[in-house]
Amino acid sequence: MDISSDSKILIVDDSNINRAILSEMIGDKYDLIEARNGAEAVAVLQNQNEEISLVLLDIVMPFMNGYDVLEVMNSRRWIDDIPVIMISEESSPSNIARAYDMNASDFIARPFDKSIVLRRIVNTLMLYEKQKKLTEIAVSQIYEKEKNSNLMINILSHIVEFRNGESGLHVIHVQNLTQILLKNLVRITDKYTLSISEIAMISQASALHDIGKISIPDEILNKPGRLTDEEFAIMKTHSMAGAAMLSQLKFFTDEPLLKTAYEICRWHHERFDGRGYPDGISGDAIPISAQIVALADVYDALTSDRVYKKAFTHETAIQMIQEGKCGCFNPLLLECLSISAESILKISNGSAKLSIYDQINDIAGECFRHNELTSAKRTFNLLKHEKTVNKFFMTLSNELLFEYTTTPSVLTLTPAGARLLKVEEIVVNPFAKNGSLAKIFTTDCRSQLSELVRNSSPEKPEFEFECDLNIDGQIRHIRAICRSTWSIDDTMVYTGIIGKVVFGLE
Q1: Averaged pLDDT for residues 429-458
Q2: pLDDT band with cut points at 50, 70 and 90 for residue 412
Q3: Burial of 505 (0-12, 13-18, 19+ CB in 10 A)
Q4: Is-cis flag, bond preceding 256, omega within 30?
């Protein structure tokens, strides 16, 4: 691996001679900066930490010694992205051990050989360059997975919307509104200590706020007129029903995403004054996640057509909420609503939207600015989060959702989907001649799918088709809603399909 000649090296030593010797050894291959003591080094790092590729650091110096500099670099997490090579005459085992304990990458004792110094510098720069490349690749892959996960979340949550006669955009609107309100909430107050990742998680969990409505009879759910007291009592059970569904997912009991989704499902109809349902709790006894989603839900309900009413304007909806005509909300959230009004209007009008890439880049940018996570931890947490989301929604879904990857050739089904097809949830080489799906998918179905995949592209990945499946000798007509997936590098290679299968269309 070639190291860029633009690499900037900071040499920190109180001796003019030592700095001159190191500069001479290194030559003009790199851009060199010098600091005469630890205090100067910290000042340089403060202003240029994103540009510096390596620090050569002496131990014994006035004002701040080398260990003091390492302490500052650790506390500000510069050490995660900037390697440090200690170069000193103080080469006792205890000094070397202390340097390594404080996350120095290497230690070179004086007097030193030019070839050794250069080799250590190149090796350290190469190691960190590889680490950055691997991190970029891993995070890029996670971005693509996050996008696919969001598609599956939307498929799942829209099941309820279609039953409820809604537009199919309610979940997306609530997610976007939730994110906007939360970001402004943490700006105006420190009462709720929410990290950027927690904001993203609450926004994602909000997609399930009404999932309990699948337990409500259609004649109540889609009644065009006013509900009777008895009907409204049944409708109100959806919040507890949704929470009960989530509480049954024992595998995910300790997952923050499940806990947040449970809070939102159960308490998003509570009121700040205690006059809501199902538990009649008030104030901040209501989790902030549920408070925020409640406000987002009410705003979108007001500004959308429903079977029982026409949509109100943005301005009217804001006024109605502020005047307490639609429930009682936390005064801080009402302040957030006012601050967010312009952004909310843009989202509602479709002139702006929070795409998955916008959300991820925003999260990443905030993490970098606030040093919320180290590079390694950021990558690890993104990976862990992506796996949790996939498992969670795959387990929750009662429909046949699937993901097929070409390399390796693996089909992953929801538990309900596997039961419907009478196969395992993970099928290796599913379309092989003797594979478990070879008899299920008719020749016509396979050829139709192949043709649609060939005609799809990264720019137009979505497609739908209908065909017959042979399940235990019974022909079942289905409709498939699919999206082809593609590699995220410049090659744009086809990597698989994700989607949903709907039965009962014959």
Answers
A1: 82
A2: confident
A3: exposed
A4: no
**Rounded CA gap, 480 and 392, in Å?**
22
Residue 1 reports pLDDT greater than 60: no
Q: Is 22 exposed, middle or buried (0-12, 13-18, 19+ CB in 10 A)?
A: buried
Predicted confidence (pLDDT) per residue in 5-58, tens digit = 578 999 999 999 999 999 988 888 888 999 999 888 988 988 888 889 999 999
- DSSP helix/strand/coil, 193: coil
Question: Which is nearest to 9 in space by CA: 204, 486, 26, 24?
Answer: 26
How big is the CA angle at 279 (ends 174 and 289), to the nearest 5 degrees? 30
DSSP string, 291-345: HHHHHHHHHHHHTS-BTTBPPPPHHHHHHHHHTTBTB---HHHHHHHHHHHHHHH
Q: Is residue 12 within a helix (H) or strand (E), and if so which, with residue range?
A: strand 8-12
CA 135 to chain centre: 16
- pLDDT over 50 (residue 178): yes
DSSP 3-state of 214: helix
Instruction: Enumerate residues 6+ apart whose C-beta is below 8 A from 212.
Output: 237, 238, 239, 240, 241, 242, 243, 244, 245, 265
**pLDDT one-digit tens code per residue, 179-231:** 999 999 998 888 998 888 788 889 888 988 988 888 888 888 888 888 999 99
Q: Which helix (H) or strand (E) holds 20?
A: helix 16-26
